[in-house]
Design brief:
- The protein is an alpha+beta fold.
- It folds into two domains: about 60 residues, 2,3-Dihydroxybiphenyl 1,2-Dioxygenase, domain 1; about 80 residues, 2,3-Dihydroxybiphenyl 1,2-Dioxygenase, domain 1, CATH 3.10.180.
- About 25% of the residues lie in helices and about 30% in strands.
- It is built from four helices and ten strands.
- Strands 5, 6, 7, 8, 9 and 10 form a six-stranded mixed beta sheet that branches.
- The longest helix has 13 residues.
- It starts with a strand and ends in an 11-residue tail after the last helix.
- It comes from Croceibacterium salegens.
- Keywords: Lyase.
- GO terms for molecular function: lyase activity.
- InterPro entries: Glyas_Bleomycin-R_OHBP_Dase (IPR029068), Glyoxy/Ble-like_N (IPR053863), VOC_core (IPR037523).
- This is Lactoylglutathione lyase.
């Protein structure tokens, strides 16, 4: 089995959150979805598990953070192009999320924006020049003068 990541997120309204992630291109995996949780597949190796608050609380005794008031993580995801970064950020805003809760970042070789889902979880779509990502190019501060 390849290495995978399952991002577990507590959500206040499961149906609303499912619709939001579907608007961004995630696909529901019905085998792992019921009235308490939904598996939203983004790629062969990335799945977002949306968990109702009662379901979340069955896994941990820690309090659910109000992601609209506090940040615990920012989930950075690699995107294929600068235009695709803009597209997913605008799609998030159009689907009930918030675009750019953090300032956009443009370093030339790397470009990123951010969005919040309806519960306030922060995602950071980011594009990096393939030569930089592969190591063929050094970051500007490390390039010879």
């Amino acid at each position: 089995m390849s290495k995978m990541i399952f991002v577990n997120l507590p959500v206040a309204d499961l149906a609303k959150s499912m619709a939001f992630y579907e608007a961004l291109g995630f696909v529901n995996e019905p085998r792992f979805t019921d009235e308490t949780a939904a598996a939203m597949q983004w790629s062969d190796t990335i799945v977002v598990m949306l968990l109702t608050h009662p379901k979340w609380k069955s896994f941990t005794s820690k309090a659910i953070v109000d992601a609209k008031a506090s940040a615990q993580v920012m989930l950075c995801i690699g995107i294929d192009s600068r235009a695709a970064v803009d597209a997913i950020t605008e799609a998030a805003a159009g689907a009930g999320g918030l675009a750019d809760p953090n300032p956009p970042q443009d370093y030339g070789f790397m470009y990123g924006r951010s969005f919040e889902d309806p519960d306030g979880h922060i995602w950071e779509p980011m594009w990096m020049d393939p030569k930089m990502a592969s190591g063929e190019m050094a970051p500007p501060e490390h390039q010879p003068a």
